[in-house]
Amino acid sequence: MTRSTPRHTTVRQALILSSRDLGSRVARGAGFTLLGIVLRTTLTIGSMAILARLLTPADFGYLAMATVVTEFAGLLGSFGFANILIQRRVITRLQLDTMFWATLALGCTIAAVIFALSFLTHWLFGDEATGPLLRVMCLTFIFGSLSTVHQAILSRLMRFGTEFIIQIGTIGLRSAAAIILAYLGFGVWSLVYGSLAGSIIGTLLMVSAIRYRPRLRFHRQYLLSTWKTSSSYMGNTVLYYLNMNSDLLLIGRQFGASALGYYQNARSLTDEVRGRIAMPLQRVLFPAFSSLQADQVRLQHSVLRSGRLLAAIICPIGIGLSAVATEIVPVLYGEQWLPMIPILSLLGISAALRGSTAIGSSLFNSQNRVPLAFRYNIIYTALLLCSILFAMPYGLNVVALAIAANSLFSVFVFRVALGLIGLGTSHLLHILARPFIAALLMWAAIAFLRNLPILTALHPGMHLGALIACGAISYASVLHLLSRQYLQDFTELAARFTKRR
């Protein structure tokens, strides 16, 4: 009985969202998130740099083809159940149990469907090489479904330090497994087995951290009552999948595995901006915004501050990647990856736009306006698909340009999200204008400094490092000249993060 007390206490604490000491908890969560960003990005980019020298562009292309299928299944895996558990201010233990069994059943069903689809890859991609990969990768959905409720509990408790440890451990062990297998000559299978190892390790760490154990009971009426919300999450999930993977499917069919490998690695590097920065911060902000639903003034203040910080961090990284694409590709990946330079330059700008406006998703979710977000996602998806299809005959670089241009729509959607809590266009400019001005001037400074004899004489790695350092200094200086509020924001964030409970 004594052993079970901490477990039950942890679950009970998660049943009611609390706004007590919210500012400090969000600041500490943001601090752990920023630290996790640095470590995860270092691990991911470092491992990719090693794997890019051990594998071929075609290996990454085949995995990207398989990911078109598995990513869709992965997004469907929770059917929005985790978001529902996070968004509701009060939940019950029975609801947790219901969501666990529903998610597990869905994960097993998706795994079976993916296994069946693996025999149709020749029709889907014009290449049979991805079929065997899918038959192994489908197992990740079963393992992933086992920890969905645990992840929701962790988010409700806002225990971001624990989440940080789990994510770093998962990425580190997954990357190590992939590198060892690639070195031993497993080729594309090293990426597949590495992904499977990461799924298993992540689930084990999550289950051990949150000692929730489901009971054998199921509340069908509760599940049906969430249908409207979960179906909206589901609709947004499908559209998100189309937004993120339609380009991979079309490029793979049109240009082949090698070209897709170039595109996928360029996109993966820019996705670090959204996937490693914006998305983790969304997980911090979603429960925080949800707990402030009844206090609009505090919510507005929190959104403006969070938006300023997010844009100030993401803009220079996305636009900086665009600025140093010519140098970073040969240094990180090697000479065989040079065709990805123009793609990376364009997608970096896209990442800056979409990442800086990413908290709009948390606003739609926290205000329970998921159906509205769904309608805007339909429009964006239609624009994206039409743009890609129009650009396809003109080559891969034009496709990347079309995708970057479509990212402007995310700014409009962000303005709509701000309107849900009484904020307007002036607040949008307050969040985005200064970081983008500073980042664009940084881009110009890097372009000017690139060909200076004192820098071109350096080793390529040192040349890249010098450009990054000069760009960072110019960005920070211009941003501070435009507004001293940013220095105050980051100082207070650091103070809250280091402040003891």
UniProtKB/TrEMBL annotation:
The keyword Magnesium does not apply. It is a multi-pass membrane protein. It comes from the Bacteria. It is found in: Cell membrane. Keywords: Cell membrane, Membrane, Transmembrane, Transmembrane helix. The chain crosses the membrane at residues 30-54, 60-86, 98-121, 133-153, 165-186, 192-212, 309-333, 339-360, 372-392, 398-421, 428-449, 461-482. The keyword Cell membrane applies. GO terms for cellular component: plasma membrane. Belongs to the polysaccharide synthase family. PANTHER family: LIPOPOLYSACCHARIDE BIOSYNTHESIS PROTEIN WZXC, PST FAMILY PREDICTED COLANIC ACID TRANSPORTER. This is Polysaccharide biosynthesis protein. The lineage of its organism: Bacteria, Pseudomonadati, Pseudomonadota, Betaproteobacteria, Nitrosomonadales.
